[in-house]
Write a structure and sequence with these properties.
Layout: E1 11-12, E2 20-21, H1 27-55, H2 60-80, H3 97-113, H4 120-170, H5 175-197, H6 199-223, H7 227-237, H8 243-272, H9 280-285, E3 288-290, E4 314-315, E5 318-319, H10 320-323, H11 325-336, H12 343-352, E6 356-357, E7 361-362, H13 365-373, E8 378-381, H14 384-392, E9 397-401, E10 411-418, E11 424-427, E12 436-438, H15 440-444, E13 452-456, E14 469-471, H16 474-515, H17 521-526, H18 537-544, E15 559-561, E16 567-569, H19 571-582, H20 588-597, H21 602-615, H22 622-631, H23 636-657, H24 663-674, E17 718-722, E18 726-730, E19 738-741, H25 742-749
Antiparallel strand pairs: 1-2, 3-14, 4-5, 6-7, 8-13, 9-10, 9-13, 10-11, 11-12, 15-16, 17-18, 18-19
Helix pairs in contact: 1-2, 1-4, 2-3, 2-4, 3-4, 4-5, 4-6, 5-6, 6-7, 8-16, 11-12, 11-13, 16-18, 20-21, 22-23, 22-24, 23-24
Length: 752
């Protein structure tokens, strides 16, 4: 049994031949109508035929009834045949069902008529009944055709909207193209539903289409990692999606951005601290991270006057599209605080409360009035500095602009917040769509001599000023450290595997040379030559000589014995080793292992270890430094007390920059940094730290005890800022820093 889709219902028919049928909610009703009609027609027919029978033949009545029965049966088969019944045609196939029915009915009528007796009254009786049946069924087919035509329109419309949505996803990075696609969808919906279902149904269908399309565009941009397009879509169309969806999406997007930031940081730190994992924890402890902020609107919903949902709505003697910038701006702010508000509702509120002034626009009192009514207070201001302070605090502002960049007349726009570079982000609701970031000077040029602002007195619930940073939490520090160590470990595992494979390859090549009877040491040494300068070069070299004919490593060109019997390291290996020592890349143990692998004697090994140790020490002529400082006018006491700080700085230069500062560099450091970077030379009470200047920089300062009691053992030589408003104090004879609060640190630095 074929079933149509229109208003389905099931009618149960009792009796021995009962069947369950469903057709547009009307099939059962049609059969019932036919039955009722048959009852009435049968009565009339009997009366009409009775006179004929009495006047002519008794069998004519039976012929007419038989003809009507055949007629109805054939029409029933025409409409409800399970294989090709016209009543089961759907959608576009039902386009011509009425003329098909009419042609078939006429043919059936003519064929049945031919089998009737050639009596006028018999024909009349048959035709009377047939007309009644036909009128009923023709109406049914006309209704079916119309309903299926509507279904087809819906199918075509939905298919077109689906194609538009797919096209929008392909063009998600261009807001103007996306808007054009949405407008096309609005026209398509209106063409389908406006005449039959009215404007409200059209708006409802468009809202669903727009919301779904924008959501899919956002999700695709997010999946592709295109955060710039995500921000553009939100800046222009955030008012088109469900507020809860928007909230969740932004939260997920910010989480993704934070995760990506951790991955990037982990990659950078893994490269920087691969050979110094001990310093990693300290580096992470003082690290700041960007606070992710999805979208440039700082949590403000974006509405446009040109949105098809309300663009054509009246606003006084104008429309929202032409003159509704005030209600649209107010709706942005109210909706951002969770109020169920849009430009259409805001415009009606303005008109109903007398704030729409025909020929002028929206009265200034509207904004504070509607804000108060919905629990989002605003106040009027003329101060640009107050506006800037409000934006930095996460409070949006409505600005009344005059003729200029944004409008030829008056225009209200929303300032959503400040960007990292100090610009103001503008949500422009107008047809020009000038939303973007502008300097305060650019905006002031459009304000005229009498600027008018309406400042929101509440902080946006989702305000996230761009460019803001924060310290990592302890949990985040641990997470980042684990990621870095994992990356370092992974890299080392790869390097170890590559090194092992290379060494095995060298051994195979060396064995091949050995099997050929080659004894030239240089040919064996050449196998390791491509790895000169790489970490653990000695391991490659050892593999190369593993099958050498001469077990005397001196034959490899690495060691040279002089006439007086002294042995020295020569060749590229010696050059490479000297370079790594100068760069500070090797530990003493690294040197011992490398030289032992190539057969170097103990005295050679010890000599290179001493070279490495001396390279890590400062050979500064401190007497010369002191003399130069005194010549510059510093007191001897000041000079003596800055030397420890300078000595530590020299060590840091050697470790970080792989160079030895000369005397001029050290003198410059003391005179320009040690005595001025947040530290005064004021003497304090015994056991106290130096005083700090007012704006003490915890991250750079080096703090020394100014007393000479017990040398400098009573004073810290360094103070570093820590998360949670804490300070780490480093003392010369302590392995671990002392942690104090910032308040405690300030008290220690003062004279109280």
């Amino acid at each position: 049994m074929k079933l149509s889709t229109y208003n389905p219902s099931v009618q149960l028919h009792n009796g021995p031949d009962a069947k369950v049928q469903a057709f547009n909610g009307g099939e059962a009703r049609t059969f019932a109508a036919i039955g009722d009609m048959q009852g009435r027609a049968a009565g009339a027919l009997v009366q009409g035929i009775g006179a004929v029978i009495k006047a002519q033949e008794d069998n004519m009545a039976a012929d007419v009834i038989s003809a009507n029965t055949e007629y109805r049966a054939r029409l029933n088969d025409l409409l409800y045949n399970e294989e090709n019944g016209l009543a089961y045609t759907q959608n576009d196939q039902a386009r011509d069902v009425v003329p098909q029915y009419q042609a078939a009915e006429a043919k059936i009528r003519q064929e049945v008529m031919k089998r009737l007796p050639n009596y006028q009254k018999a024909h009349t009786a048959f035709l009377t009944n047939a007309d009644q049946v036909n009128n009923t069924l023709l109406t049914t087919m006309q209704k079916h055709s119309y309903e299926q035509a509507e279904n087809q329109k819906k199918i075509v419309t939905n298919n077109h909207l689906t194609e538009l949505s797919v096209e929008a996803q392909r063009s998600y990075g261009d807001p103007q193209v996306l808007q054009d696609i949405l407008n096309n969808g609005a026209l398509t919906i209106a063409a389908t539903y406006l005449n039959t279902q009215g404007m409200e149904a059209c708006k409802e269908a468009y809202n669903k289409f727009k919301g779904t399309t924008v959501q899919k565009a956002l999700e695709l941009a997010q999946a592709n990692g295109d955060q710039n397009s995500v921000d553009l879509i939100l800046d222009n169309f955030s008012g088109s999606v469900d507020p809860q969806y928007l909230k969740n999406f932004i939260a997920n997007s910010n989480t993704t951005r934070m995760d990506n930031q951790f991955v990037t940081l982990a990659d950078q730190l893994a490269q920087q601290y691969e050979n110094a994992p001990a310093a990693l924890e300290k580096a992470i402890a003082g690290m700041q991270i960007d606070i992710p902020a999805t979208g440039n609107n700082h949590g403000v919903v974006a509405f446009k006057q040109t949105d098809e949902r309300w663009a054509g709505n009246g606003y006084g003697n104008s429309s929202i599209k032409a003159g509704g910038c005030g209600p649209t701006s107010a709706a942005m702010i109210l909706a951002s605080f969770g109020v169920n508000m849009d430009p259409a509702k805001a415009a009606r509120w303005s008109v109903d409360h007398g704030y729409r002034v025909d020929g002028i626009g929206t009265g200034h009192g509207f904004f504070s009035a509607i804000g108060k009514a919905y629990g989002v207070p605003m106040h009027q201001s003329a101060s640009a500095s107050e506006v800037e302070a409000a934006l930095k605090a996460g409070k949006p502002v409505i600005a009344a602009h005059g003729p200029g960049k944004f409008t030829d007349g008056g225009h209200f726009m929303v300032y959503t917040g400040m960007t990292a570079d100090g610009k103001i982000h503008v949500n422009d609701p107008g047809p020009r769509n000038m939303s973007g970031n502008y300097t305060a000077a650019e905006l002031a040029a459009d304000m005229g001599n009498n600027p008018v602002y309406f400042i929101c007195d509440k902080v946006l619930p989702n305000a996230q000023p761009a460019g803001q940073k924060r310290m990592l939490t302890p949990v985040e520090q641990q997470k980042l450290q684990s990621m870095v160590l994992s990356k370092i470990g992974q890299k080392q595992r790869i390097e170890n595997m590559e090194r092992s494979n290379a060494i095995e390859d060298i051994k195979e090549q060396a064995f091949a040379l050995y099997e050929k009877g080659i004894t030239d040491p240089k040919q064996f040494e050449a196998l390791a030559a491509p790895y000169m300068g790489k970490k653990d070069y000695y391991k490659y070299l050892a593999a190369a000589k593993s099958f050498g004919a001469d077990e005397d490593v001196s034959g490899m060109g690495l060691l040279k014995t002089s006439k007086d019997g002294r042995v020295s390291l020569v060749g590229r290996f010696a050059q490479d080793l000297e370079g790594k020592i100068i760069q500070g890349e090797l530990s003493d143990n690294d040197i011992r292992t490398a030289l032992a692998a190539v057969g170097a004697p103990v005295d050679i090994i010890n000599s290179y270890v001493k070279k490495n140790q001396s390279a890590h020490k400062s050979n500064v002529d401190w007497d010369d430094v002191k003399a130069r400082l005194i010549a510059k006018g510093l007191k001897k006491e000041q000079v003596e007390e800055t030397i420890p700080l300078a000595d530590r700085w020299v060590t840091e230069q050697v470790q970080d920059k792989k160079r030895y500062p000369d005397v001029s560099d050290i003198v410059g450091f003391i005179t320009t940094t040690a005595l001025t970077s947040g530290i005064t030379v004021q003497r304090t009470k015994e056991g106290r730290l130096w005083n700090s200047v007012k704006d003490f920089d915890y991250t750079r300062a080096r703090v020394y005890n100014r007393t000479k009691k017990n040398g400098y053992s009573g004073g810290a030589y360094r103070a570093d800022a820590l998360p949670g408003h804490r300070v780490a104090l480093y003392y010369p004879n302590a392995e671990q820093p002392t942690i104090v609060t910032e308040d405690e640190f300030v008290r220690m630095m003062g004279d109280k």
